[in-house]
Amino acid sequence: MNEIVKNIAMSETKSVFKKALVNFADKNEIDCKSNQLLIRSNKEGEPYYTYCIDFAEKKRITFNEVLGVKVDFKNREAIASPFITKTISRLSEEHKCENDDVKIYACTFDEKAKDVFLFGYIKNQKIGQISFDWLFS
């Protein structure tokens, strides 16, 4: 992947996750640190998203809800989905498990969601932080 395109994709993805964490926190009247976005896939590798509070799954959400829009005119889901699918597949291969055993949480540790972090889990066991650079490699 072209390095410029990669950097744009990483920046856009981080921005989307930051805005989503702030918007969901405001909507649910909680602090940003208390909510997460869970990214998973079905056995076929198609990603889906769940809103969480304190890592407890609350509601399945659409990508447009993550974006905070009714219509995604920029077609960001079409850009992000292949990277997410590839990441989940890589993690499932590395850990010798099924795609649907992989969970990726997007979360923040501050009230303004100045930075977003990704953490991977396999069958509910934390495997560690996933860098955005690794996500888009």
Commentary on this structure:
- The protein has helices at 3-27, 63-67, 76-94, 132-135, and strands at residues 35-41, 47-53, 56-61, 102-107, 117-122, 125-130.
- It is an alpha+beta fold and 137 residues long.
- It has one domain (3-135).
- A six-stranded antiparallel β-sheet has the order 3-2-1-4-5-6.
- The radius of gyration is 14 Å and the shape is globular.
- The N and C termini lie close together (8 Å).
Summarize the structure.
This protein has 137 residues and is α+β, with helices and mostly antiparallel strands. Helices cover 39% and strands 28% of the residues. The chain is globular.
Write the layout of secondary structure elements.
Blueprint: H1 3-27, E1 35-41, E2 47-53, E3 56-61, H2 63-67, H3 76-94, E4 102-107, E5 117-122, E6 125-130, H4 132-135
Antiparallel strand pairs: 1-2, 1-4, 2-3, 4-5, 5-6
| Order of neighbouring strands in the sheet with most strands | 3-2-1-4-5-6
Computed Rg: 14 Å
Individual helix count? 4
Largest sheet: 6 strands, antiparallel
Number of strands: 6
- What pattern of helices and strands is seen along the backbone? HEEEHHEEEH
User: Helix content range of the residues, please?
Assistant: 25-40%
Alpha carbon gap, first and last residue: 8 Å
Question: What's the number of domains?
Answer: 1
- Mean pLDDT across the residues is 89
- Give unreliable regions as ranges: none
Strand portion? 25-35%
Structural class: alpha+beta
Q: Which descriptor suits the 3D outline? A: globular
